[in-house]
């Protein structure tokens, strides 16, 4: 079961400290940890707070082995997170990727307006019938 974790640090986390933490996680190879489905950092009256969605408590605990020393180094105490089971997540459908050639061809087709036949040409075209060979 997926879990939502909401962190309100007990020491204020500034945008600068958050960015430093993210950069250190990247350097540690933990920018996109296994099991994290979603991450959001947003402003509150006490600095930045974080909301994550994880596949399991075990996946989050494994990430914590890398995260917690970094948080201590930058001087942020993340506090005890609120942990909640996730009932539902709604995401937009993924756009189907197109090949570059198809996208270019489609753009060219849309760019050229079709020539309209004049009414006289349409009547003349209807009047001409090809004879069939038997």
CATH fold-level label of one domain = Alpha-Beta Plaits
* Major sheet: arrangement of strands: 2-3-1-4
Strand content bin: 15-25%
The average pLDDT value, as a whole number, equals: 84
Radius of gyration: 29 Å
General shape:
elongated
- The tally of strands reads 4
SS-based class: alpha+beta
Biggest sheet features = 4 strands, antiparallel
Low-confidence stretches: none
CATH class of one domain: Alpha Beta
Order of secondary-structure elements: EHEEHEHH
Supply the CATH architecture of one domain.
Answer: 2-Layer Sandwich
Number of helices: 4
The percent range for helix content is 25-40%
How far apart the termini lie comes to: 74 Å
Describe this structure in words.
- The chain has 134 residues and is of the alpha+beta class.
- It has a domain at 3-85: 2-Layer Sandwich (Alpha-Beta Plaits), CATH 3.30.70.100.
- 39% of the residues lie in helices and 19% in strands.
- Helix 1 packs across helix 2.
- The longest helix is centred in the middle third of the chain and has 18 residues, at 57-74.
- It is elongated and about 85 Å long.
- The relative contact order is 0.19.
- The model has no long low-confidence stretch (mean pLDDT 84).
Give me some keywords for this one:
elongated; alpha+beta; 4-stranded antiparallel beta sheet; 4 strands; 134 residues
Summarize the entry for a quick read.
This protein is an alpha+beta fold and 134 residues long. It has 4 helices and 4 strands, in the order E-H-E-E-H-E-H-H. The chain has a domain of 83 residues: Alpha-Beta Plaits, CATH 3.30.70.
């Amino acid at each position: 079961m997926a879990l939502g974790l909401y962190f309100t640090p007990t020491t204020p986390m500034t945008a600068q400290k958050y960015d430093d933490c993210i950069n250190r996680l990247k350097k540690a190879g933990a920018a996109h940890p296994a099991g994290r489905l979603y991450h959001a950092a947003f402003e509150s009256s006490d600095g930045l707070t974080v909301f994550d969605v994880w596949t399991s408590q075990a996946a989050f605990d494994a990430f914590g082995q890398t995260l917690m020393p970094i948080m201590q180094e930058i001087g942020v105490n993340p506090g005890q997170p609120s942990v909640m089971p996730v009932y539902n997540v709604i995401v937009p459908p993924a756009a189907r990727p197109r090949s570059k050639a198809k996208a270019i061809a489609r753009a060219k087709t849309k760019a050229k307006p079709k020539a309209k036949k004049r009414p006289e040409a349409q009547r003349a075209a209807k009047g001409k019938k090809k004879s069939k060979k038997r």
